[in-house]
Amino acid sequence: MITGITHLTLFVRDQDEALKFYTEKLGFTVHTDADMSGMRWLTLNPKGQKDFELVLFHAEGTDTSLIGKQGGTGILMCLSSDNLDKDYKDLKAKGIEFIDEPEEHPWGKSVTMKDLYGNLLYLVQPAQ
What we know:
There is one protein chain. This protein is an alpha/beta fold. It folds into two domains: 1-67, Roll (2,3-Dihydroxybiphenyl 1,2-Dioxygenase, domain 1); 69-128, 2,3-Dihydroxybiphenyl 1,2-Dioxygenase, domain 1 (Roll). It is built from two helices and eight strands, in the order E-H-E-E-E-E-H-E-E-E. The chain has helices spanning 15-25, 84-93; strands at 7-12, 29-36, 39-45, 53-58, 75-80, 103-105, 108-114, 120-126. The chain has a four-stranded mixed sheet, with helices on one face. The protein has a four-stranded mixed sheet with strand order 5-8-7-6, with no helix packed on it. A hairpin with a 7-residue loop joins strand 3 (39-45) and strand 4. The protein is globular.
């Protein structure tokens, strides 16, 4: 029986620039940064979620065409917030590009933003 998702691989052009974006702008923390026989294994956790790791994987060869397009034209990843209005304001001040304004929905409040490569990230504050 499948019991969860532990990792999501994100193809990146440069692991250091992606690390800076996800830690300094979105508040993720480093889980693992190790040399695995010449390959850098770099994973991050969303704050407070130690059972999920975002793998920042250096794209090479044909994988480079996937940078910024892993979700196609749709959402790549949904991120949760406990205070969307504050997070929206803080992230906007850090230079995050949003493609819409926060909206109320039956499931909560949400807004869509882009990561440093153009992948769409959906920020949601669940309804109370």
